[in-house]
């Protein structure tokens, strides 16, 4: 069989050769150059229309096309990033003619292919809202997580790096928060595989959790697309309500093997230090509070200092002398100059039949917080083989090994404690070199030395695929992918800080596999009717299994593994959960005469998270577009080079609730040594999909031949049947069940502009995007859900009808009474100020954790080999609640907390005008939740600044390189804000939708300075 | 080559068909929990569910602590130790200003109804089980279930009942769904159900049942219920049956033995602790006084005085209970009663039955019997026995001492219509026995979701 085909193929091929040799042919030569820079363009494609005769230009932009058939022919020249041109030539037999082409840059990249989910589409033909992210800077800006590259780059995509720890989570919201209790993070798909996201550890207290997304090497990414509106995201149906982030990894390209090496390294520093009191200031403020509250004499003050600061074996004078002269800057003990380095080496290339990309990468990031070390080693192979005219198959495979050493922060200790409960009048060490008060929980240096935590994570992410061309217009593609994660965590807490050592060993296995099978049809009828169709199915199955061993009572301090403790001091626990999605979907597109575009898509999703009758959801969407510039009447308006109007409407779903919520379940327990079971959840067979319908109206335009381009989108998303806990009578034994009861709305607009201010030898591009989103909860059946009710861990924020999610309920603070020095609050019944704090009566709904406007501005300048770019991000109108402020500003001075320097301005005597009430030792008023601690979190930040130099070609060639580039990058180096906490870019708890915009001793952000080199050879 | 192509194509289409025809690919069962549809389909399933119900009784909001201590806080039997801060909810109780959101009362309601629902679910599931073990086990299982239901209903009602209107708590005898909105039953209704449950439990339960509910536990609880109902004859009869069963003996050497992991011979029913699985965590938190542990509460002066002035002696404190379980340090009277971190919580002891029967006998006119019963307790405590006469106040004080911090005194005062008075002479505060300030509020969250419930008081 194979032989026969081979014989036929060879015969055919020889036949063609024969006919070509004896036909009347000619030779065409020429050079292809770019219009503005006059540079030659190597690798451009020249083809004779209607034939397969074609050639690529060589390294000098020159081409020689042999065997050109005689007669009138049309030559078509195309090159990525440039506008395709065609020219008619007349070829006489035996003649050699020269045809040169000058290609104009396609500034809007209208012919660029955009990944749209189970396919690609020309940018020009897209009628939905999709942002393609410029990923060029990923290679140069130091980042452990690729999501950082999205910040400020795409309209409608709000990105917050939760804190400055290495590997810290990133909160992403596409067009606002569409849900109350279910996840609002978008779906991430890498090369067709929906990947594992979120936190991989159950260890509490570590602000930057074991984030799954930093297992992806940013350097392997070739493109990132964000599907924002319903028409784009509905092809991911049930998973699409929060937007979809599609990541495509780098592929090889036919041609000579290219090696790409890059190395960068640099330092990081904390970008802002919270002003807390030093030893002298602390004593002054604390004594002031002590005396104001008539607590006793100065001697009593000293003798009652906690943690043994006052040494009973010494006299009062000796004590006072020591204490007065002790000043520890605890924050400093937990901060350091960080260091990061990244090395990448890749090879890519291929033959006519096989293309490949092979890369390896190493990243080491020692964060700004002492003990926070991140290391990632990753390898990547992407191969594609074209077996014959019809069949192509390939593999994308990435393997990552990550080692993560972590320390507690925030409320759990470390830097969080250093700035609060570690008093500056405490020394780190006693005179004999031992730790001072190591068991008090406030000596963070002792805590750090005594605790070890490490996570070792291995991730495998990849897929196998085959593409089969059934017919010239019909292809079938099948993919089988997987994303497995294996993690071992080790924790040991020693006896310096506790009575008894304990250790934890935790293993996690996540298996996640999927298959996609699609048919794609694409045909143009009668030159004017382009029809595309896609139909397919996919299945994804996810399983997570965890096992934890805890042990205490180590026989020897050298044994830190909990398997070494006696059996009766061990305890184990485990968990397991599993979900699957089975989906069928289809999409049809129609383009008439390159100007009227319509797309229709539908997806039917089944999820294991819902009961028998509610498993399936149907998610349809439609979009239309009209390219006005294709119309004759627009040809007379030369200033407008491109104009497209588009609109879409559709439905997406969200099912991101924990597993098995529709069935009632029993937990397993023990009583008096016997195994027992108890109801842990009531069944709710009616539980079903949360749905979001979205309307999007937008336009894309280009002016002055694309020199200025941009667009605008207006959208309105309404989420109904929102999944959340509904309160039920506790006579059932339970207080709530998951139910579909909420309704929520997000509406807003997005503006994005790109201007090529200068093109040619000196080029300057400015890109700007601004987004606005307004969130409002329409219905919660009258419930007011606090952070704790709504899946968070604490509760000053609330979800309540008529307000944006996460708005606060706080008593209005009215300043400090100049006569008495007491805090004043507004009595909402009388409107007058009062010293009485009455939450029930006076709490008002106030603030919004989400910004009114956010976006980014990027400038890139280049001249000869030099390039310079600087890029700002901003957030305007969001509020931050300093949950720690109430303890930091007088509130906890009597409870042994260090204070912010603002307390030095405390009220002293009648007539003083100040924001800081009189310091009192036992003030409870200052610890109440009031608007005093609600701050404007707006900021403008110079997110990155890059200066690079690419060596001239002649020199590079001499050194046998294709490209040599060196660069300097700085990030987060300048911020404009009125916010007085550590940093306005902050998020205490990124898991819950309600509890955003709150800080509690949160770790700060880092600024980095890096230099790097990039070699291509 | 073409073969390979075909194989891939056929395989892919086959995969597509397999998935499209198979709903099972998206239907899973949890593995570290049990689907309620399968949980109670076997005898062992029922048995473990009963264990689960006992397990919930360990809750710090039920018999693990607050079901007992709330009354003592309300009745001024404790005062702040000053060594460990009280939480907001406890301060509300101290001040008799319990809000409808008071977490202690709210969680007691939730946990109590959880347990009631659990046993109701088991009772409903018994007839469905058809395996070979069910015949032998079903009577006992039902008996344990209705015993637990009666216990929780009775103890919860005592806090939440409206003494002015006679509204008790919702009375549930079958499992509820998430949408049921029951209204409050009458106090009479709850008593009748509790008594009926206990009478049936006496019939169903065995005489011994490995530290779980027995016939005698049901009978002893029945005696307590009749006593509080004012049915002295039945209360005395039930007490007599337990006393004369000779299954239980008063501890004679050291009374602290009643507050240990291992049950003493005096205990009729307890919520069990094992090492590592304590029932008494909340009680430890309130009272435990060891070197490093600072309790929230110490004995009120009034309670100390009861020990001092009712022993029948004047010179020293002879009371064994005081000597063994009260620890005065620098003017503060701590109790060591709950020092064992793994104490099994003794819910009913034989001593209570003597005091109950004695008071019943007094009320029924049997003075000799009354003296005999109270003296059993006084002699065990090495204080002076009564000789010729005894009165209701003597019984009141003896119960206050014998059962101090064991969930009796507050209810007993209200049973006797005694006022509850702030012992601080500077505060001229006194509550009538049926004052709204002493009743737990129906949780506000409950009223918000169930319009059929009424609140206690205005």
Describe the fold and architecture.
The complex is a heterodimer of chains A (1017) and B (458). In chain A, the strands form ten sheets. Chain A has a 22-stranded antiparallel β-barrel. The longest helix of chain A is centred in the first third of the chain and has 21 residues, at 2-22. Chain A has 1017 residues and is mainly beta. Helices cover 8% and strands 48% of the residues of chain A. Chain A is globular and about 115 Å long. The mean pLDDT of chain B is 89. The chains are: A mainly beta (1017), B mainly alpha (458). Strand 31 of chain A pairs antiparallel with strand 1 of chain B, so a sheet runs across the interface.
Key attributes of the depicted protein:
heterodimer; A: mainly beta; Immunoglobulin-like; Maltoporin, Chain A; 22-stranded antiparallel beta barrel; 5-stranded mixed sheet; 51 strands; disordered N terminus; B: 458 residues; mainly alpha; Serine Threonine Protein Phosphatase 5, Tetratricopeptide repeat; two-stranded antiparallel ribbon; 49% helix
Spell the H/E element sequence of chain B: HEHHHEHHHHHHEHEHHEEEHHHHEEH
Number of strands of chain B: 9
Largest sheet of chain A: 22 strands, antiparallel, barrel
Radius of gyration of chain A, whole Å: 32 Å
Count of the separate structural domains of chain B: 1
Number of domains of chain A: 3
Distance between the termini of chain A: 44 Å
Query: Biggest sheet of chain B, open or closed, and with what strands and sense?
Result: 2 strands, antiparallel
> Total strand count of chain A, please?
51
Low-confidence stretches of chain A: 1-22
The average pLDDT score of chain B comes to: 89
Helix content, binned percent of chain B: 40-55%
Q: CATH topology of chain B, which one?
A: Serine Threonine Protein Phosphatase 5, Tetratricopeptide repeat
Top-tier CATH class of chain B:
Mainly Alpha
Report the top-level CATH class of the largest domain in chain A: Mainly Beta
Basic shape of chain A: globular
What is the percent of helical residues of chain A? under 10%
Number of separate helices of chain B: 18
- With strands numbered from the N-terminus, the spatial order across the biggest sheet of chain B is 2-4
**Count the helices of chain A. How many?**
11
The name of the CATH topology of the largest domain in chain A is Maltoporin, Chain A
């Amino acid at each position: 069989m194979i032989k026969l085909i081979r014989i036929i193929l060879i015969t055919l091929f020889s036949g063609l050769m024969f006919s070509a040799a004896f036909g009347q042919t000619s030779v065409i030569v020429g050079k292809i150059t770019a219009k503005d820079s006059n540079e030659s363009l190597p690798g451009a494609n020249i083809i004779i229309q209607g034939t397969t005769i074609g050639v690529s230009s060589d390294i000098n932009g020159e081409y020689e096309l042999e065997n050109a058939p005689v007669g009138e022919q049309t030559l078509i020249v195309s090159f990525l990033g440039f506008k395709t041109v065609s020219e008619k030539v007349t070829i006489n037999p035996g003649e050699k003619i020269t045809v040169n082409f000058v290609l104009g840059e396609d500034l809007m990249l209208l012919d660029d292919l955009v990944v749209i989910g189970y396919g690609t589409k020309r940018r020009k033909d897209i009628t939905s809202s999709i942002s393609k992210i410029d990923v060029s800077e990923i290679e140069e800006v130091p980042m452990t997580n690729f999501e950082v590259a999205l910040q400020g780059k795409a309209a409608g995509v709000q990105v917050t790096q939760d804190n400055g720890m290495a590997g810290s989570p990133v909160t992403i919201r596409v067009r606002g928060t569409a849900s109350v209790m279910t996840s609002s993070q978008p779906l991430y798909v890498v090369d067709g595989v929906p990947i594992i996201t979120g936190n991989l550890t159950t260890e509490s207290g570590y602000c930057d959790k074991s984030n799954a997304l930093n297992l992806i090497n940013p350097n392997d990414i070739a493109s990132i697309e964000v599907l924002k509106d319903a028409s784009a995201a509905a092809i991911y149906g049930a998973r699409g309500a929060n937007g979809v982030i599609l990541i495509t990894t780098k592929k090889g390209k036919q041609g000579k093997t290219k090696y790409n090496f890059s190395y960068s390294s640099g330092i990081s520093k904390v970008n802002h230090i919270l002003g807390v009191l030093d030893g002298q200031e602390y004593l002054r403020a604390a004594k002031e509070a002590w005396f104001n509250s008539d607590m006793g004499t100065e001697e009593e003050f000293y003798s009652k200092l906690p943690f043994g600061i006052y040494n009973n074996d010494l006299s009062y004078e000796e004590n006072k002398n020591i204490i007065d002269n002790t000043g520890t800057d605890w924050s400093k003990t937990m901060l350091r100059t960080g260091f990061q380095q990244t090395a990448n080496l890749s090879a890519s290339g291929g033959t006519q039949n096989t293309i490949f990309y092979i890369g390896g990468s190493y990243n080491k990031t020692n964060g700004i917080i002492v003990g926070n070390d991140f290391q990632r080693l990753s390898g990547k192979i992407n191969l594609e083989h074209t077996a014959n005219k019809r069949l192509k198959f390939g593999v994308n495979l990435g393997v990552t090994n990550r080692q993560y050493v972590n320390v507690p922060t925030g409320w759990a200790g470390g830097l969080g404690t250093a700035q609060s409960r570690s008093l500056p009048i405490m020394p780190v060490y006693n005179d004999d070199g031992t730790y001072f008060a190591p068991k008090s929980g406030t000596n963070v240096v002792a805590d750090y030395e005594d605790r070890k935590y490490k996570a070792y994570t291995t991730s495998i992410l990849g897929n196998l695929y085959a593409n089969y061309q059934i017919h010239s217009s019909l292809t079938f593609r099948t993919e089988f992918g997987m994303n497995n994660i294996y993690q071992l965590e080790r924790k040991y807490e020693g006896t310096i800080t506790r009575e008894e050592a304990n250790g934890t060993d935790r293993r996690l296995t996540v298996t996640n596999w999927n298959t996609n099978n699609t048919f794609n049809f694409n045909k143009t009828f009668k030159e004017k009717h382009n029809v595309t169709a896609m139909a397919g199915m996919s299945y994804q199955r996810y399983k997570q299994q965890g096992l934890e061993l805890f042990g205490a009572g180590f026989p020897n301090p050298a044994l830190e593994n909990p398997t070494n403790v006696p059996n009766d001091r061990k305890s184990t626990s485990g968990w397991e959960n599993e979900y699957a999605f089975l989906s069928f979907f289809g999409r049809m597109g129609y383009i008439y005469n390159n100007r009227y575009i319509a797309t229709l898509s539908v997806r039917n999703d089944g999820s294991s998270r819902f009961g028998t009758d509610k498993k399936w959801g149907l998610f349809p969407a439609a979009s239309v577009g009209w390219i006005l510039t294709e119309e004759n009447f627009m040809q007379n308006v030369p200033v407008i080079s491109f104009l497209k109007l588009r609109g879409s409407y559709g439905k997406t779903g969200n099912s991101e609730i924990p597993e098995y919520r529709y069935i009632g379940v029993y937990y397993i327990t023990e009583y008096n040594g016997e195994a027992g079971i108890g109801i842990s959840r009531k069944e709710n067979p009616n539980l079903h999909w949360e749905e979001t319908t979205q309307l999007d109206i937008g336009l894309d335009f280009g002016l002055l031949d694309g020199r200025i381009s941009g667009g605008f989108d207006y959208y309105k998303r309404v989420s109904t049947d929102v999944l959340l806990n509904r309160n039920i009578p506790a006579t059932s034994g339970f207080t709530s069940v998951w139910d579909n009861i909420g309704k929520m709305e997000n509406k807003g607009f997005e503006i994005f502009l790109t201007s090529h201010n200068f093109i040619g030898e000196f080029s300057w591009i400015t890109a700007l995007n601004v987004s606005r989103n307004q969130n409002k909860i329409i219905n919660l059946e009258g419930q007011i859900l606090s952070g704790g009710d709504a899946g968070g861990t604490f509760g000053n924020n609330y979800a309540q009808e008529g307000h944006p999610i996460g708005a606060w309920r706080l008593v209005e603070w009215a300043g400090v009474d100049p006569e008495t020095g007491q805090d004043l609050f507004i009595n909402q019944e009388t409107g007058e100020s009062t010293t009485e704090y009455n939450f029930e009566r006076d709490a008002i709904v106030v603030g919004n954790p989400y910004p009114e406007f956010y976006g980014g501005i990027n400038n890139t300048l280049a001249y000869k080999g030099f390039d310079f770019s600087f890029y700002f991000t901003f957030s305007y109108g969001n509020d931050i609640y300093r949950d720690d402020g109430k303890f930091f500003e007088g509130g906890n001075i009597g409870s042994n907390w260090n204070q912010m320097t603002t307390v030095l301005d405390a009220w002293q005597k009648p007539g003083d005008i100040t924001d800081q009430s009189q310091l009192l030792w036992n003030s409870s008023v200052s610890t109440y939740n009031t608007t005093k601690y609600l701050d404007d979190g707006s900021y403008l930040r110079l997110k990155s600044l890059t200066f690079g130099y690419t060596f001239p070609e002649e020199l590079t060639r001499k050194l046998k390189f294709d490209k040599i580039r060196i660069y300097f990058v700085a990030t987060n180096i300048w911020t404009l804000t009125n916010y007085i906490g550590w940093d306005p870019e902050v998020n205490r708890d990124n898991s819950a939708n309600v509890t955003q915009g709150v800080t509690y001793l949160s770790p700060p952000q880092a600024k980095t300075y890096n230099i790097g080199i990039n070699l291509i050879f | 080559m073409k073969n390979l192509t075909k194989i891939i194509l056929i395989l892919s289409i086959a995969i597509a068909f397999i998935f499209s025809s198979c709903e099972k690919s998206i239907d899973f069962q949890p593995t570290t929990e049990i689907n309620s549809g399968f949980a109670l389909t076997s005898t062992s399933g029922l048995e473990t569910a009963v264990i689960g119900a006992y397990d919930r009784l360990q809750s710090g909001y039920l018999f693990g602590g607050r079901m007992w201590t709330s009354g003592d806080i309300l009745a001024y039997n404790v005062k702040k130790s000053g060594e460990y801060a009280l939480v907001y909810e406890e301060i509300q109780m101290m001040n008799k200003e319990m809000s409808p959101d008071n977490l202690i009362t709210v969680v007691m309601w939730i946990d109590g109804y959880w347990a009631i629902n659990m046993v109701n679910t088991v009772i409903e599931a018994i007839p469905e089980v058809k395996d070979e073990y069910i015949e032998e086990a079903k009577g006992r299982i039902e008996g344990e279930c209705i015993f637990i239901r009666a216990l929780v209903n009775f103890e919860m009602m005592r806090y939440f009942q409206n003494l002015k209107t006679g509204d008790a708590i919702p009375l549930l005898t079958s499992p509820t769904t998430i949408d049921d909105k029951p209204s409050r039953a009458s106090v009479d209704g709850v008593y009748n159900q509790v008594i009926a449950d206990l009478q049936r439990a006496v019939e169903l339960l065995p005489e011994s049942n490995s530290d779980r509910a027995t016939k005698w536990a049901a009978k002893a609880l029945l005696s307590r219920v009749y006593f509080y109902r004012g049915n002295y004859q039945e209360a005395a009869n039930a007490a007599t049956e337990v006393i004369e069963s000779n299954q239980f003996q008063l501890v004679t050497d050291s009374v602290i033995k009643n507050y240990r992991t291992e049950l003493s011979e005096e205990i009729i029913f307890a919520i069990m602790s094992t090492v590592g699985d304590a029932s008494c965590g909340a009680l430890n938190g309130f009272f435990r006084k060891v070197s490093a542990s600072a309790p929230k509460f110490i004995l009120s002066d009034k309670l100390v005085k009861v020990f001092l002035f009712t022993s029948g002696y004047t010179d020293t404190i002879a009371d064994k209970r005081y000597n063994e379980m009260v620890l005065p340090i620098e003017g503060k009277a701590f109790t060591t009663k709950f020092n064992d971190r793994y104490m099994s919580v003794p819910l009913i002891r034989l001593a209570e039955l003597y005091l109950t029967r004695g008071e019943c006998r007094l009320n029924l006119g049997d003075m000799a019997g009354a003296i005999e019963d109270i003296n059993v307790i006084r002699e065990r405590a090495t204080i002076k026995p009564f000789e010729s006469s005894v009165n209701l106040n003597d019984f009141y004080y003896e119960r206050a001492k014998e059962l101090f911090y064991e969930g009796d005194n507050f209810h007993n005062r209200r049973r006797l219509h005694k006022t509850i008075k702030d012992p601080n002479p500077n505060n001229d505060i006194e509550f009538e026995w049926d004052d709204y300030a002493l009743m737990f509020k129906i949780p506000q969250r409950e009223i918000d979701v169930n319009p059929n419930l009424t609140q206690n008081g205005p």
